[in-house]
Amino acid sequence: MSHKTDVVVIGAGPVGLFAVFELGMLKMKCHVIDTLDFVGGQCSALYPEKPIYDIPAHPSISAQELIEKLEEQIKPFNTTYHLGQQVVSVHKNDDQSFDVVTSKNTKINAKAIIIAAGCGAFGPNRPPLENIEQFEGASVIYSIRDKSKLDGKDIIIAGGGDSAVDWAITLAETARSITIVHRRPKFRCAPESSSRLHQLAEEKKITIATPYQLGKLHGNNGILNSIDVVDFEGGIKNIKCDVLLPFFGLSMDLGPILDWNLNIEKKHISVASDSMKTSADGIYAIGDVATYQGKLKLILTGFSESALASHSIYSLVYPNQPLHFEYSTTKGIKSDEKV
Ligand code: FAD
Fold first, then answer.
1. Could you give the angle at the alpha carbon of 119 between the alpha carbons of 117 and 123, nearest 5°?
2. What is the CATH number of domain 126-246?
3. What digits encode the pLDDT tens for the residues 305-320?
């Protein structure tokens, strides 16, 4: 499939979605590509139900609700999404436009590219356990999109960081049992989360199994019924379990983007902080993937970067039309036919 547009946005995380809005307000068309088969990036994949407290004008908003609000905000611009496909190559043509090609061989011609690829195409770090793939999906779950599906289950959470501890605390009220398995006695999480975890353990709402590691998975037909956990002397404890939630962080892979001859600093793309331009003309980077002096990896920073990149790209899409700055209150939201 071949398409032609003004701008290709790589990444449908919160920052890529807001770029659609900023581009739309400046009457630029765009296509959005994401490896995941849903929009929302880290917010939807990793912590949809967690409240975020530092989105301006939202004292608290769940990560998924933020994504839904962004989708609503960009609806007038009728954007085309290409989900479930990774951008694999970019070719610059003689007329300075780009051909972007995805893993599904979708080809999109555009005048500029915005890379909003976060930490890259991401996936969970899988624990190296025999046969784990047999249980993935039904019993081994790496990201929780609907926590009500875990009500009344016997759950083992593996890991010692914020995600493991936060989910143990969150699910303690609704699960039949929660065991948190960690190889060290101390958890690497916010001190208040650690205190809450230990308090719930005292109230017998959570079992803390430390220092233990995951051992053997037991079950049939893709459904777990128990897991052996192993201590460092080789002692084995068998724990009843319907669901295993391994939280060992993410493997982030910028993949092919690293080969596009952009200036890369510690796996992030260096940009000019006043325009979000990368070292390659016509290619911009925003959000978690972009770096410059003083960069704060926050959603609100990425929103501002979306505006900067879009204003900078305007002259590539409309070379003969000067951009007159206007507030949204002045121009309103117009879903121009061209957009
Ligand atoms: P992402 O959300 O990472 O989205 C990038 C998207 O690009 C992904 O969907 C990925 O699949 C896609 N992609 C990557 N490479 C390719 C490719 N080659 N082709 C196609 N698609 C590709 N931030 C806050 O501001 N406040 C908070 O309270 C907060 N809490 C957090 C809590 C947790 C548990 C976590 C993990 C993060 C938190 N963050 C918070 C950070 C915030 O989620 C990120 O800053 C934000 O998601 C970055 O948005 P992004 O759009 O730049 O990237």
1. 105
2. 3.50.50.60
3. 999 999 999 999 999 9
